[in-house]
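seq as requested:
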Amino acid sequence: MTEQHDASNVTNPEHAAHHIVTPVTYTIVFVTLLIFTGLTVLAAYIDMGILNPVVALAIATIKAVIVILFFMHVKYQSNLIKMTVGAGFFTFAALITMTLSDYISRAWGLW
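struct tokens:
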């Protein structure tokens, strides 16, 4: 069986040209993740009352988005892959909202 060169990449569209990410970009992402890790530690020491889990989850979500965009190269992928990842984040947001609504409502009537 002979393989022919597919110049337009119709047979295997997932084998499109890969985007090369520079070390400078990875360094910026690394420093950003370190800053957000520091914010996570700082937020753990500050008493914000009922907003502690909300702030912690917001920081974790931002860090997850940075990792997904750059380390998993979703930023440079097709719109279909971006939509799939977005659907995953929508599902994650719905689950976190339901969890936090339960967490917040447990103290009702005890004030």
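The chain has a mean pLDDT of 84.
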